[in-house]
Amino acid sequence: MVLAVEWLDSPRPMIRLIDQTRLPEAEVMLEVTTVDALVDAISTLAVRGAPALGAVGALGVVVAMLQAETEGWDEATLAAQVDRVRDARPTAVNLAWGVDRVRPAIPMGVAAVLAEARALIAEDGAANRELSRLGADWILARTGKERVRVVTHCNTGALATTAWGTAYGIIHELHDRGALEMVYADETRPLLQGARLTSWELTQDGIDHVVQVDGAASSTILRGLVDVAIIGADRITANGDTANKVGSVALALACRRAGIPFVVAAPFSTVDLGTPTGAEIVIEERDPTEVTAFGGRRTAPPEAIGFNPAFDVTPHDLISAVVTERGVVEPATTPHPELLARIAG
Ligand code: MRU
């Protein structure tokens, strides 16, 4: 299984990333030893996916501390550089969460921060395995089927996490149980995380799938070609509203009309109980040229202005289940203002 994010102590301390902008054509590794390089990797989506962002957020504090030692930064400069990592992308709560989790250990030194970051990474991998088991159990029970056909959006596999995956982890678990018939992977405009990354992972894992344009997904659902939609999440608010890659809400609407479950899978680190509803989520708007050009070539007329929100928010009443490692809640049928707090422990 590919590791999207790794800490290496030698030949020099670094975060090693697989450059996801180059997949699937080339497997190029990035060696990150500075805050500038990390912020660039996050902004360009060389590293991406909410849980993977949590991991680089935590490891980014280590990188900043080591750079502070080399370059003689004072405390205020170090804090500002850590904030640059924390703020490199706004929507996935995991990035800020990863930074905030290890930040209190800064006065204890680099080794203590690194130990906390490593613990976070180990916990994410374990959480993914557990939520995948819970999600597969829930889907098989709810659909009453022995083998299911799944539609998914964006990329939620090992590349998007520290190991195994979330929505993809459930798909993998169903496959391992012999309970998966077929996956419809949305290509995921404009940066093609589905076509480039999910299809690459599904191919490596020997899982039958087709790649479809995002615009086909609603029709695939309404034609009865799938039994369940499974997506990941970038932020799940206290009432169960969920931000995920733009295009997710169209799947949810179609699932409601078709009467099939719409499942959100994420580690509990993606749950943001401090944000009451999806209306308060900051949606990242990316460079409009990602929309007005394709493969480096302008496709829209020169006068055309692109609109490029990277995420959308699916209202909780369209979500059949939110699956985390702590359990499953059913937002569509459980009206409760603090829904997720029920499994917060
Ligand atoms: O812009 P991206 O590629 O970082 O968006 C990723 C997604 O929307 C994923 O579905 C989400 O982060 C969950 S990853 C397990």
UniProtKB/TrEMBL annotation:
It comes from the Bacteria. Pathway: Amino-acid biosynthesis; L-methionine biosynthesis via salvage pathway; L-methionine from S-methyl-5-thio-alpha-D-ribose 1-phosphate: step 1/6. Keywords: Amino-acid biosynthesis, Isomerase, Methionine biosynthesis. The record marks 154 as: Transition state stabilizer. HAMAP family: Salvage_MtnA. Belongs to the EIF-2B alpha/beta/delta subunits family. MtnA subfamily. PANTHER family: METHYLTHIORIBOSE-1-PHOSPHATE ISOMERASE. This is Methylthioribose-1-phosphate isomerase. It comes from Actinotalea lenta.
